[in-house]
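::Amino acid chain::
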Amino acid sequence: MTVQPPVGAVMVVGGGVAGMQAALDLADSGIRVYMIEESTAVGGRMAQLDKTFPTNDCSMCVMSPKLVQLGRHPGVEILTGACIESVAGEMGRFRVRVAQRARYVRADKCTACGECSKVCPVERPDEYNEGLTTRRAVYKLYPQAIPGAYAVEKRGRSPCRLACPAGVSVQGYAALIRQRRFAEALALIRRDNPFPSACGRVCTHPCEAKCARGGVDEPVAIRDLKKFLTEAERRGEIPRPEPKPVDVGAEAVAVVGAGPAGLTAAYYLRRMGRRVVVFEALPAPGGMLIAGIPEFRLPRDVLSAEIDAIRAEGVEIRCGVRVGPDIPLSALRRDFRAVVLAAGAHRSRKMEIPGEDLPGIVPALDFLRAVNLGGNVEVGPRVAVIGGGNSAFDSARVALRLGASDVTILYRRGREEMPADEEEIREAAEEGVDIRFLVAPVDAIASGGRVAGLRCRRMELGEPDASGRRRPAPVAGSEHEIPADTVLVAIGQEADFGFLDRQFAGLATRDGRLRADPETLATEIPGVFAAGDLVTGASTVIAAIAGGKEAAVSVDRFLRGENLSAGRGARPAAAEPLAEDVA
C-alpha cells in the first residue's frame, strides 16, 4: 500500500522503545504519526530484557505504560508486519510505499483469549525467547504486546498442498497426526476431499512428488496417512462424524453423474444448504471408482461407506436413470435451478486397425465395468492388453484373477513414457504380467470367427511430440505375431455426449470434451456447469474431486447472484492421464 499522510504527518520507522517514545512525543504535540514495525507487535529488543536497569526494574515495568499510551493514542497508527519498499518526494512532502504482511487474524475482532494458539498443531522457534523455547504458529509475540491481537505465521502454501488439485492441507493434517489428533486430521481432509478412503488407496499422490522431505531422503507417505486415518475410523478408533443438519431451501440442483466429480459437487452443495439430486446411469453410484477400478485396489465396502456418508448428508442419488434416453437434459434444466454435468469419460477409444471388431477384442473399460458390477466375464488363457496406463494394468491383473495363464501388456513407447503408476507396474510384474515395450499392433488375426492373435511391429522413439514424449515410429521389417485368445484395448477414453439434447450439443468440442470456463466451470448456458473428465478429458480421481468442489462453489454463487470469478484463479491442468496412453 502507499501511505499518503496529511500534511505535517510523521512516519516513525521502528517500534522499539526509542520509536515508541518519539511517536508519543510527536502525537502529544498534535502531529499525526504512522509507526512502521516489521514484527507483529511493537516493543523491540527492550521487550525481551528483564531486570537489567540501574533501578532494578524489569523492562516491562518501564515499557508497559508506554505500550498502553501508544495503543490508545488517537494520533498514532501502528502498522505491524510492515516494511518500507520505497520513498519518493522531498522534505515535507514524502510519499512512502509500505508492504504489509497479512496477519490472518481480524485485529478488531480478536479478544486475545489464546484459545486458537492452544489448538494450533504447528510449533515454531520462539524468537521472543531467542529460540530457546517453541511457540505455536498462531501466537502473540509476548503477553503485553501491542497490538494485542494474535497473528498467524505463514510461509505461503506448502509445495505438497500446491501439487494437490483439491488443495488439501497436507501439512495441516500431518501436523495433527503427529499430535495424535486423528479425528481433527480426518475432518481437515474432508474439508476439501469427501473421499479420503478412496484417495488413500488409488490417488496418484502428486503431492508426494513435490514433498520437500524428498530433498532430504524420501517423501512423506502422504497417501498412506489418509489410509491410516480412514482405517482407524473403520475400526471405531476414530468416531465417525455425525451429519450436520443443514436448512434446505427451495432451490434444487441436479447433478448428472455419480462419479467422484458429481458426488463431490453434490456433497459440498448439500453442506451449503442446497437440495441436491444426483442422476446416475449405472446401477450403483461411484462412477469410475466402482466401474473402472478393481476391488483389490479399492474394496467395495470402503467405497460404499464413503458414498453412504454423502447420502447421510441428505444427497439424493437416483441410479439406473440415463439422462438423455430416460430423462431429457432439457427437462432437468427446466425443473432445477442449476445443473452440474459430471458424466465422466466412459467410452474407450479404438485402435483403428483391421479386425479390431472381432469377437474376443474388448474395450478395457467395458471389461472392467462388467467385472466390477458383477457380470459373468470369461477370458481365454492367453490375454493381450494394449496400452500403458492404469486401466491397462488393472485389466491385466484382473485377467490373471479370472484364470488367464499368460497375460501380456503391449506398449508402443518405452518405460519412461509409460503413464501408469509406478506401483501398478511393479505389482503387475510381480504377479507375472509380461510387459513388452516399443510394440504396437497393426492387425488382428482371426481364427474360427474370433481373434487368435495380433500382428505387431516393433517401434523406436524419435523426436518429442506435442505431449513432450518421444514419438514412436515403426521399425522396418520388424513385423511379428503374438498369439492371444482375448485382447483388451486400453489406449484412451473419452466422454459419450449422447446425453446432450439438441440445445446443448454445442457444448461438446472437437477434442471430445465439454466446453466450460476453466475458472468457474460455467458453460455458455446459464445455470449449467460441468466438472471432472467431461471438462479435462480422462484424468485422475483427485482432479475430478477438485473439479466437483469448484463447480459447487460456482453453483452456490450463481444461486446467490454473486460474481462467479471473484477471488478465484484458473484451475490447474490435470497433471497426468488417469489410465491411458492417448496418442
Confidence is low (pLDDT under 50) at residues 570-583. The first helix runs from residue 17 to 28.
